[in-house]
Specification:
The protein is of the alpha/beta class and 256 residues long. The protein has two domains: 6-113 and 213-246, 3-Layer(aba) Sandwich (D-Maltodextrin-Binding Protein, domain 2), CATH 3.40.190.10; 117-201, D-Maltodextrin-Binding Protein, domain 2 (3-Layer(aba) Sandwich), CATH 3.40.190. Helices cover 35% and strands 23% of the residues. Strand 2 and strand 3 (46-47) form a beta hairpin. Helix 3 crosses helix 9 (222-237) and helix 3 (55-67) packs antiparallel against helix 10.
């Protein structure tokens, strides 16, 4: 699979302003489809081909099922495609109320917590961010909040373009740790059972390193918004969301 900057994709999907007419729950049910914008080659998030659809697509499909309609993925790669897409929702939208005015998205209830987690080798003595100093080397993504935060704390960093590369560097003992999403770390461990890495808890003391995610809805009417909230609540309650994430090696972290 061609490597991609998955976090960049998610942020682009979450932060792109989409011009679209308001879509009602009645309209969605009349059409019989719920459209989701997703990248065609971004496992564990989404994939157009292969046996795994990605947890974003699987969760979106479960929501569509609750609404009594079929999921229709709109496969997008570039920002201009997102603007032109006819999707109703975008998964894993960062739950930032202040950004709603810029994105034109309405947010569902949050269903997962993520952020930038410290990942180390199984035998590493590092147990928290407090253990890092100028003598440690941490792999971070270029331009990431983790890079900025560690730089401000005068922690040694090594810049990578992809989370997988940073995790490979930890596994190969080229760096002491990496700061990546728990999602990608879990998926990495699933694919490397003989070289599993240890994922430390999110640092909740820094708001830039932990956040909730929600479904981003493109100008929904109140009924559609409520129906999606109800669907998420039901899927959380019956364990569907946790089971979907678990298929990709990801432990579901409850939102805060």
């Amino acid at each position: 699979m061609r490597k991609i900057s998955v976090l960049g994709i998610v942020l682009a999907l979450a932060c792109t302003s989409i011009a679209a007419d308001a879509r009602s729950l009645e309209n969605v049910r009349e059409r019989g489809v719920l459209g989701v914008c997703a990248h065609p080659n971004a496992l564990p998030f989404s994939s157009k081909t292969g046996d795994l659809a990605g947890f974003q697509v699987e969760l979106a499909r479960a929501i569509a099922d609750k609404l009594g309609v079929t999921l229709q993925p709109d496969w997008v790669v570039m920002t201009f495609q997102i603007r032109a897409a006819d999707c109703d929702i975008m998964m894993d939208t960062i739950d930032d109320k202040e950004a709603q005015g810029e994105t034109n998205l309405k947010l569902s209830r949050p269903y997962y917590r993520t952020g930038a987690a410290l990942v180390v080798a199984e035998n590493s003595p590092i147990t928290s961010l407090a253990a890092l100093d100028a003598h440690t080397k941490v792999g971070v993504l270029v331009g990431s909040m983790a890079a900025m935060t560690l730089g401000e704390r005068h922690v040694g960093i090594s810049i990578f373009g992809f989370e997988d590369d940073a995790l490979d560097a930890v596994a190969n003992h080229e760096v002491d740790a990496a700061m990546v999403t728990p999602t990608m770390a879990g998926y990495y461990n699933l694919r490397h059972p003989d070289h599993k890495l240890r994922v430390l808890a999110l640092d909740e003391t820094d708001p830039g390193l932990a956040w909730n995610v929600s479904v981003g809805m493109v100008r929904p009417d109140p009924a559609l918004r409520a129906a999606i909230d109800d669907a998420i609540a039901a899927l959380l309650a019956d364990g569907t969301v946790a089971r979907i994430y678990a298929r990709y090696g990801v432990v579901l972290l409850p939102p805060r």
